Amino acid sequence: MTEATRTSRATTTPSVQPDQAAKRSKATTGRHSSHRALAGAIARWTLAILAVLWLSFCTAIGPFYWYGGSIADWGFVNTIYFLLALAIYLMLLIALVHVGGGLAVIPSSVRSACRRVAAAIGTFCHTGWRRNISKPWHALARLWRRFTATRFAHAVGRCWTAVRTYTPRIIMRCTRSWIGLALIMFIGWLWVPVTLLSAFGADIRSQVREFSWAWNQWTGLQQPYTGFFAFVPMDIYPTAHYLWPQDPTYLTDQHNLVLTVFYGAVAAASRYFTGSNDAGYVVLSSLQFLFAVFCCSATMHRFLNLPWLGSESGKDTEATVVPNSEPGSAPGDYPHAVARAGVWQRTIIILFFLLCPIAVFSTISLTKSPLFAFAFVWWFGIAYQLHMTRVKRGETPRRLPARTLAAFIASACAMLISAKYAWYILLAQTVIMLITDRGRWKTYIAALLLPAVILHGGLVLLVSTGKVINGDPIESRGIQLQQIARVARRNPEGIPKNAADKLAPIFNLDQMGESYFQQDADPVKSSGIQSKKVSYRWRSVTKEDMADFNSAWWQIVKANPVIAADAFFAECFGYFDIADLPYVSMDYYVTSDYVVNNTEWIKDWQPQWRENIARFARDWGKIPVLGWVTHGNFYVILTLLFGAAEVVRRRWRTLAWHMPLLLLMGVMITSPANNFERHMLPLTFVFCFVALTYWRESRGCHETRIAGPEDSAGGHHRDTESGRD
C-alpha cells in the first residue's frame, strides 16, 4: 500500500464516523422521545378513564341508596348498570377526543356501512310501499303538487325564505354588544321578579334575625346571651359556645358576615317603613336579578364576541390569527384561533339561560349560592379574556385594561363575600396562574390574592377582637359526621369504647344515630329550631374536646369500613349519577314554607301561578332523559368529561384556567348534602362556555393563538369593548 493511499484513508475515515454516530444518536433520541410520548399518552388516558370509572361507579351504586341499601348488596344488576354506564361515558369521551383532534366522531368505514344498510332498507321499504299502496301514494302526490301551485303556498314559501334569511342577521345584530345581550336577558327574565317577587329558604330568615339581635344590642336593648334557657340566633345553626367572646355579640360568619349585615339592614329598613320584611325581600331579589343580568350578559359578550380583538368596522368578521410556531410547545398551549361565535352558538347559550329552571329561579333566590354562582360567571369570563390574550414565551405580556382589571377584582370580592370556600378557590387559582402565566403576576396578585387577603384578614381581625363570632369548624366535617352517625344508627355496638369516650363530650351518640339522614348532615349537627334533637353538644363542648374528634372518627371508620364507605358515597354520589333526582332543587325556594306561609303579602301575590310554575319545573325534571337538562348533575358530569378530554388532548393551559371547576366538584363532595342543586350552580352556568371553548379549540388539528389588531404594530393592547363590565 502506497503512502498516498494510506494518507487518503487516514483523512477520509474520520469524516465518516461522526455521521454514523450522529445518526445513531438521532435514532436513540427518537426512540426515547417516542417512549416518552407513549408513556405520556398512557398516563393521560389513565387519568381520563379514572374519571369515567368514577361516573360509572356512581351510576351503579345509585339504586342502593335510593332505597336505603348498602354497597355490600352489589349484585348482577349493578354490574350491568356499571358496564352500561362505562360504555356510554367511554364512547362520549372518545367522541370528544376525536372532535378535539379534528377527527370524525364516527369512522368513515362505519359511516359507509350504515349508509349501505340504510339504502338497502330504503329500497326495500320503497318497493313494498309502491306495491301495496301505490294508488293512495299517487293521489297524495297529486294533491301536494296542486297545493304547491297555490298563492298560499307561494306566500308561505316566501315567508319561510325571509325568516331563514333575516333571523340570523337579527340574532347577530342583537347579540354583538353587551347592551344587546343585557336587554335580551333583562326582557327574557323580567317575568320572574314581576310574577314571583322573591324566593328564599331558612337561611335569610336566620340572617335577618341575627342582624336584628345585633341591632338591638347596638341600640342598648338588653337580651339574653348565655344560659341553658337562652336561645339566641347562634343556637339555630349552632355555633359552639367556646367560640363566643365574653362580651355579648350576635353577629356571626355562619352565612358570611357581609351578606348577613346587608340582608339584615335591608330587612330592617323594610320593617321600619312597611312593618314587615316582605318589601326588603323583594328589593333584595330585584337587586340579585339585575346582578344576574349583568354578570351573564358581560360573560356572554366576552365568549361570543371576543371584544378584546377590536373591530374597526364593527362587523362580525373573522378574528386575526397568528399560528403557534413556538418550538417545544405542546398542542393546547395556546387557544385555537376562531371567529366570533355564530348564530347557533349564540341561540343555544341564550336559550339555556332563559329557559332552564335552574338559571331562571336562581335569579331571585336569596341564598348565598346563586349570588356566588353569578359572581363566578362574571369572574370566569374575565379569566377567559386573560387566557385568550396570553402571549408566547419571551414576548411582552399584554396588560389587562383598567376597567377589566377593576371588574376582575370586583368579581373576586363578590365571590368572597358570598361563599367561604371562595377563599380557597382563589388562593389555589392564584398559585396555578402564577406558574402558567408568570408574565402577568401583578394582575393575579392584585385581582385574586389581595381581595382574599384583605377580606379574609378583615374577618380574622373582627373575630380576634370579639366583634364577630367565627363559624363553627364542625360545618366542614360533614362526611365525618355522616360516617359516625351511620355507624351509630346501623351498628352502635361496633363503636369502640375508646372512641365513644372521646366523642361523649362532643356528641350524644344515641341522638346522633336517631338524627342520621343519609342525604343531609344538618340534622346531625343539630341545625334547626329549638325543638331539634341535640346530638351536637354545642353548649358545652370545648376546643380541647374537639382535639380528640379525628382520632375517634378514625377508630370508628377502621372498625366499620363498609358502613363508613356507605355514608361517604350516600352523601355525594348524586352529584355524579345522571339518574339521581336532586335532593333540593331550585324550585324549592319558590314554594318553600317560608315564602308561602311565613310572609305578610308575598304569599298572596299570584299564589296559583307560583305553584304552577314550580310544579311545571318539577314535572319536567322527572321526565327521563329530557328532564336531565334541568338537573345540575347533568352539567357536572359533562364538565368532568370535557375536562378528561382536555387532559387527553394536552390542553394544559386551558385546564389551568378550568381548575376552579374541579375544585368546585371537591366542594360538592365535602358539602353537607347530596345532590343539593344550589351547590352545582357555578358549573351549571358556565358549562355552555366550557363547551364553546372546547369547540373553538378543536376547529383544527393544530393549535394557534389569537392576536389582536395591535400585535402587528407592537403596541399595547387596547380593549375596545370590554370596558362595559
Automatic annotation (TrEMBL):
Taking the record's annotation, the residue ranges forming a coiled coil are none
Instruction: Give me the stretches of Low complexity compositional bias.
Output: 1-13
Identify the taxonomic lineage of the organism of origin: Bacteria, Bacillati, Actinomycetota, Actinomycetes, Bifidobacteriales
Question: Superkingdom, according to UniProt?
Answer: Bacteria
Keyword Transmembrane present in the record's keywords: the answer is yes
Q: What is this protein called?
A: Uncharacterized protein
Q: Which residues cross the membrane?
A: 45-68, 80-106, 178-202, 256-273, 279-300, 348-365, 371-388, 400-423, 443-463, 655-673, 679-695
Keyword Translocase set for record: no
Please note every region of biased composition (Basic and acidic residues): 713-725
Alphabetized UniProt keyword annotations: Membrane, Transmembrane, Transmembrane helix
Organism listed in the record? Bifidobacterium thermophilum RBL67
User: Pfam families recorded for this chain?
Assistant: DUF6020
